[in-house]
Please model this.
Amino acid sequence: MKTRTLKPHLATMLRAAALGALMVPVLHAAPSFDCARVAAGSIAERVCRDPELARLDRQLAEVYAAAQDKARNEHPATLRAEQRGWIKGRDDCWKSTDITACVAHGYQRRIAELQARYRLLPPTGTDRYACQGDSRNELLLSWFATQPATVYAERGDSVSWMFREAQPAPVGGVLYIGRNESLRLHNPDQLWLRWGVDATEITCVKQP
Model:
């Protein structure tokens, strides 16, 4: 019985196909990391397969590199540790009912935060508000035209990054939400502020 041998070019094609089956196929511009090294079924694999998520990953890599330059003399050096924490949070999106939207949302917020925090974009304006009718109860706001829009809020010894929500506040106005803080703007001269977990909403009036 004769043994059939494959032609050289056919054998090469079959080996390439077998190798390709072991790799994440990327038919668009790749993200900033090596897709050949990601685990099957991981969030990183989803980023490799989705062109918009891959684009956001490349954008974040560029923004993060620029932030690293600005943070070179930062003490303590927290940026790298925060980025590792952010990646862990991104990977928790597997728990979401809409994984792709969750991952995209995470990238957009992280890009906006780094752009504003490290002044990679200049603020579009700064405002000072007095809260609860007391000029000593001061709120300082710096606004940034990131995507989504960001505001850096300073109150006493505390600070908060807040992001503009796509939907208006349930009671009207523009809504910004941070980790434990939020503010509602109905007009440029007055806002409603909630500062801290379970805090009561207070009124703040813009100062000249």
The beta strands are 125-131, 134-144, 150-155, 158-164, 174-177, 181-187, 190-195, 202-206. The chain has two domains: 25-117, 125-206.
